[in-house]
Amino acid sequence: MHGDLQALGRAVKLAQYRQHRALDGALSSAGTTLAQWDALRAIGRSPGASARELAGATFQSEQAFGTLVGRLTAQGLVERRPGRGRRIEHHLTPQGEKVLAAGHRIADEVLASCFAALSGRERADLLGLLRRLTADVEG
């Protein structure tokens, strides 16, 4: 039994690894990385969110996200604004919106290739199974 579970865990990790490498390589044509694009995507989904919220949404520590968003701010892609109290809110700039949109187009192409071996029904089944496994952690 443990061999099957370990093989399953490794197969999931391998699929994720291949997907991330393909995305990271392709996103370079938009002048961004997977980590940067993921941060832009999180900010785009939740404008005004705090660094803590965005770090959680991007699977990073607050410190790592702070470093990343500092780079995005220096590139003119993200703007930090004062919020209520000590809160700092994060927003995309018009240039950040453009990079995010370019990343969406690239991701759609890369992911279509990554999942090309599966039929539409198999992709839907896989998504359903993965959602069941992560239901306790999804927002």
Key features?
single chain; 139 residues; mainly alpha; two-stranded antiparallel sheet; 7% strand
Structural overview:
There is one protein chain. Helix 1 crosses helix 5 (94-114), helix 2 crosses helix 5 (94-114) and helix 3 crosses helix 4 (62-74). The chain is globular and about 50 Å long. The protein has six helices and two strands, in the order H-H-H-H-E-E-H-H. Strand 1 (78-82) and strand 2 (88-92) form a beta hairpin. The protein has 139 residues and is mainly alpha-helical. The protein has a two-stranded antiparallel ribbon. The longest helix has 26 residues, at 2-27.
List the topology elements.
Elements: H1 2-27, H2 34-45, H3 51-57, H4 62-74, E1 78-82, E2 88-92, H5 94-114, H6 120-134
Antiparallel strand pairs: 1-2
Q: What is the strand tally? A: 2
State Rg.
Answer: 17 Å
Largest sheet: 2 strands, antiparallel
Structural class: mainly alpha
Relative helix content = 55-70%
What is the 3D shape? globular
Query: Helix count, per DSSP?
Result: 6
